[in-house]
Design brief:
CATH topology of the largest domain: MetI-like fold
Order of helices and strands: HHHHHHHHHHHHH
Number of helices: 13
CATH architecture of the largest domain: Orthogonal Bundle
Distance between the termini: 23 Å
Structural class: mainly alpha
Strand content: under 5%
Amino acid sequence: MKTADIFRVNNSEKRMMQIILFICSFIWLFPAYSALKQSLLFNGWGNYISVFTTKIAGVSVFSTLGNSFYVALIHSIIVVGIAAMSGYAFSKMHFVGKKILYVVVISFMSVPITVMIAPLFFTLTRMNIINTRASIFLPEAALTLPFSVLMMRNFFDSLPNELMESAYMDGAGDFRIFTRIYMPLSTPALLNLSVLSFMWSFKDYLTPALFTSDPKLMTATLAVSRFKDSLGGTPDNLGRYYAAMVVIAVPIIVLFSFFQKFMRSGMTAGAIKG
């Protein structure tokens, strides 16, 4: 059987795939539509005004969004920087223990987050950074780096080694080859990883809930939970709670909509080697 025949589908199979995609899209959109609908009940757009004017423990929603953006940005910079260098090293460089070290790094993807909570808390306490922004973005980076390294290594594997060999012949070193040749070629993957890292951090609830207690460090995800607790469960306040959920979701939706083209190219660029 030819390779082309494997990916060839007839009209009935194509229609079935479209139906499945439509059903999956509807399942995903229903909770989003429900939240938007509930946010406009009783007080209408006044629920959104209440979200922006109500302070939680003396902190406004703008402050929590600012904290989330700051933490997500630093987290993305750390993850992209380390993953790019590690992925290049595991893909193109040769050193003792390379395969063993790579397996160790990737194996952390199988470790449940709950197992890491106690060691992370002990480490952050010894570093004296509990209840700081660093206690949020550093654990997030540690937990997301294994997948990020895997992703970047696979992308660098798809780039030809001849570029590196030609640069070596011209007298270029490893760092120059990495920064001047392979980094520009890996722009789609770097943009993809940057957006994914930002979204992972922005949506994270567990890490800031575990390692911070200062209201001034409250992230947007924490604010939504505490917003509901401070308002109570009356139908009138439930609309404000859903409005807060919509407000928190908007930045991520806008970010994804703007960068979705780069994310698609980044996901497919490393799929073909050579």
